[in-house]
Amino acid sequence: MRVRRAQHTVHCVWILFVITSLFLIGCGASASAPADDGEPPRNERSCPRGDNCEEEDEPAFPAAKGPTSPEMRLSGQFTQLPLPIAPGDFRVGRGTSTNVPDLSSGIFADLDGDSFPEILIGNSQCCQSKKSFRVFRFDPLTQELLPADDLLAKGPGVEPGAISAAADLDGDSQTDFITLDFRQVFVQGNPDPVHHSPILYADEGGILTSGGPIPSPTDDERAIQSHAMDLVDLDADGWLDILFSEMNCSDSDGATIHALIRVGERAYARREEWFEQGPQSKAEVVFARPLLGEAMLAFSGGHNCSNGNPSPAFFKAGPLEANGSPSFQGFDPTPLLSVYKSTPEVSFGPISLAEPMGCALMDFNHDGRLDLAISMTHHHAMFEGTDEGEFIDRTAELQHSAPVAFSGPRRMIPWGMAPVDLDLDGFMDLVIAHGDREGKNLLEGDVNNDSWAMQHVTSFRNRGRFVFDNISDQTGLDATGNWHSITVGDLNRDGRADLIIGSAGSFPRVHLNELTTPHHGFAVELRGTTSNPLGIGALIAVETAATPPQLGVMGNAISPRVVSQPLVFFGTGAADTVGTLRVTWPSGHVQTLQDLPAEGVHVIEEPPLITLDPPSRHLPAGSAAEMRIQVRPHDTFGAPLDAVVTIEAPWGEATFAGPIEESGEHVWERRLVAPEEAGSSVIEVTINGVPLGIRPRIWWD
Question: How far is 305 from 421, CA to CA, in rounded Å?
Fold first, then answer.
C-alpha cells in the first residue's frame, strides 16, 4: 500500500509558497488587493480582465501561435425542450417547499438499444429518502420530450436519486448506471449496515439491481457522497473503472481522490492507495486523461477542507508497483507565474486553492497537443499543452477577451464547462455554466437582488490563439438561473452537440442544438475491444480541406455530478468530407479512416488486438486451468499485419504452458497456467518491439 503523504510535509511546502508570495508582492509582481465587490485581483503583468492598462509589463509567456478563425457565420439558437414534470414527480430536496430538487442534473443514455439516447433527470442532494429520477424520450417528429419511465424499473432496495453516468459495466450489452451515493445506512433495530452501492446494473427488461457492498481497503467504512465522477480505465487493463471524490469533509482522515477498479464481471474494489493522498478535499470535478505527454494524468478539484493545508490537484502516473498496479504521485504542472497563483487566496499555492469547478480538454490552438480549460472561482483559466511536462498559462489571453461577466454587483461563479464548436468552423468554442454556491428555490422566487443566484450560461467563440468572443446573447443558452453542470450529448444523432444544463434550485434545462451555419460537422463514437468499451482517453485527430488539423480526446467535457455521452464533436467548415480521421486508442493501436461524410455520428470499432479465453479473466488457482491469450496485429487501415509478437506475464506467479505459437494466419497464441496459490497476473504484449498500452490482469481464485 502506498504511504499517505505526511500532512506536516504539505504544510511546510505551503508555508514556503506563502513566503515566496510575500517576497514577490514586495517586488511588485503579485496581484493587487481584492476588490470589495468580489472581483478577483488583476494580474499586473497581463491585465487579464480586459481593463485599460496604462503600461503593461513584459508578458510572462511567449505569444500564442496558431491559425485564426474565419468570420463567424451563425444564426438560429439552442432550443429549450420543456420537461413534462408535474408537481409531485420529484421528492422535496433540502431547503425547498415544493417538488423542486435542490441540486438537479441530467445525462444522456440509450436505454432501448436504438442508438438514440434517452434523458435521465434526477436530484442529487439531501438525504437518500428524498431522491428521485425521471426518464424522457425525445420524439424527433414533434421535437418533444415524452415520459419514458417504463424503460427502467427499480428492483428491491434500489433508490438511485441522481444518476451520474451510464455505461455497460459488465459486458452484457445492457446500460448500467453510477449514482453519486457510496454509503452505509444503519436501520433502526438492525446492527448491520445496509449498503447503497453507487453501481446499479440493468438486467434485460431494464430492472435495476444494486451492485452490492464494495469493501474498503482500510478500516474506513464511512458513508461517502460525491459531486465528482469519471469513467476511465485507470489501470490500463481494458475495463472501465470509476474515479470519484467526496462532497463533504469528514472528521476522519479522508482521501483526496477515490478509485473503484473493476475486478470481475460485477465486482469492483476500492484502490485509494494507488494515489499519493494529501489532505482531504471536497471535489467538484475529477478526471484522468492523457495530457502533457503523460499516458495518464489525473485531476481532482473543488474546495479544500483546510486552506492552511491544501490538497494536491494534479497526479501523474509513476512506476508500476511490484504486482503491476499503477501508482500516481501529486505534482504541479502549472507555471509559477500562472495568473491564478498571484491571487491572494492562492498565494502561489496549489491550484486546489482556486476552487476548480469544471474542465474542458481539446486542442484549442491547433498545435497537435491537448489543452486544458478550467473554471475557477470568479475566473476562467486556460493552459496550453506541451511535451515538456508543464503547461503554458494562457489565462491572460482568455480573460482579456472573455472575462467572467457580472451578475448584479459581483462577478458570476463559473462551474461546468463543455467544448462545443458552435459555428462548426473547426475552432473549438467553450460553453460555461455559472451559478451561486448555494441552492435557491428559483421557482418560488427565492431570489435576493443582492445575491449571486441569477446568473447565466456563457458561450465563447474561439478566434484562435486562445482569444475568444462572448456570443452568449446569440446562442439561446443565456437564461438567468443558478446553473452548475453541463452534460453534452446528441439527441437526434445529427452530429451537433445538444446540452443539459443542471441547476441548483430548479429543474435542468434540455437544449436541442438548432444553430444554423453553412458549415458542416459530425461526431465520433468509439467502441473499444482491447481498449475500454467507450474508448475513454482515445485521441482523435481530424484533417479536412477547409480547417486546420484538429485533435480531441474521448471524454473531453468534465462537469460536476455528471458524465457526458461519450462523443467527440468536430466542425469541418465548408468541407463536406473528412479527409483523414485517425484514432489513437488507449491500447496504442492507431486506426485511420478516410473520406468520411462530415455529418451525423460515426461509430468506429477498434480491431480486436488481444482476446482472452475465458473472457471473465478468472480461473481457479491450483487447478492447472489455462488462460488462452491470442494476439491479432492490424495495420492502421485494419488489415492483418505480419509482425513480431511477444506475450509475457512479468507480474504475478503464473507460468506459460509453452512458447508463443502462430495459431492461424496473423494470429499468435500463448497459454498461461493457473498457479497453485491464489493471486493475479498481468499480461504484457509487444508488437514489433512496442508494448501495447493495455495490460490485462488475470485472477487466480
Answer: 36
User: Nearest-CA neighbor of 135 among 120, 151, 146, 145?
Assistant: 120
The residue among 7, 615, 700 whose CA lies nearest residue 309 is: 7
Least confident stretch, 184-198, 355-369, 431-445, 685-699: 184-198
Residues 6+ apart with CB under 8 A from 185: 128, 193, 194, 196, 223
Residue 353 has pLDDT above 80, yes or no: yes
First to last CA, the chain: 21
If residue 73 lies in a helix (H) or strand (E), which one and from where to where? Answer: none
Cell output for 98:
415544493
Taking the C-alpha atoms of residue 492 and residue 571, their distance in angstroms, rounded to an integer, is 17
Q: Is 311 helix (H, G, I), strand (E, B) or coil?
A: coil
What residue type is 268 in one-letter code? Y
Map residue 319 onto helix, strand or coil: coil
Model confidence, pTM: 0.89
What pairs with residue 406 in β-bridges?
411
DSSP 326-344: --EEEE--S-TT-GGGGST
Q: DSSP 3-state assignment of 23? A: helix
| C-alpha torsion sign, points 325, 331, 334, 340 | positive
- Percent over 70 (pLDDT), the chain: 79
The rounded distance, in Å, linking the Cα atoms of 561 and 583 is 28
Per residue in 391-430, pLDDT (tens digit) is: 999 999 988 878 887 776 778 889 999 999 999 999 999 9
Beta bridge partners, 330, equal: 315
192 confidence band (pLDDT: 50, 70, 90)? low
The number of beta carbons lying within 10 Å of the beta carbon of residue 306 is 14
C-alpha cell at 245: 471524490
Range scoring the smallest mean pLDDT among 102-106, 141-145, 269-273: 102-106
3-state SS assignment for residue 399: helix
For Cα atoms 134, 138, 141, give the angle at the middle one, nearest 5 degrees: 150
Provide the b/e sequence for 58-83 (b: ≥16 CB within 10 Å): eebbeebeeeebbebebeebbeebeb
* Grid cell for residue 606: 477498434
SS3 16: helix
Rounded to the nearest 5 percent, the helix, strand and coil shares of the chain are 5, 40, 55
DSSP string, 109-130: E-SSSSSSPEEEEEE-SS-GGG
| Separation of alpha carbons 377 and 436, rounded Å | 10
Nearest to 311 by CA among 300, 326, 298: 300
β-strands 618-619, 297-304: how paired? Answer: unpaired
Query: Is the pLDDT higher at 28 or at 441?
Result: 441
Phi-psi region of 72 (alpha: psi -120 to 50; beta: other; left: phi over 0): beta
Cβ within 8 Å of residue 440, ≥6 positions away = 446, 447, 451, 453, 482, 504, 505
Strands 626-631 and 667-673: what pairing? antiparallel
The region of weakest confidence among 37-41, 101-105, 161-165, 197-201 is: 37-41
Contact present, 4 and 328 (Cβ < 8 Å): no
CB 261 within 8 A of CB 554: no
Residue 66's contacts (CB-CB under 8 Å, 6 or more residues apart) are 365, 366, 367, 464, 465, 548
What is the phi/psi pair of residue 399, to 5°? -75, -30
Residue (of 108, 116, 139, 151) closest to 508 by Cα position: 108
Residue 678 neighbours by CB under 8 Å, 6+ apart: 621, 700, 701
pLDDT, tens digit, 9 for 90 and up, residues 612-649: 999 999 999 999 999 999 999 999 999 999 999 999 99
Quickly tell me which residue has 429518502 as its cell.
Answer: 129
Share of the chain above pLDDT 90, in %: 58
pLDDT at residue 549 tops 80: yes
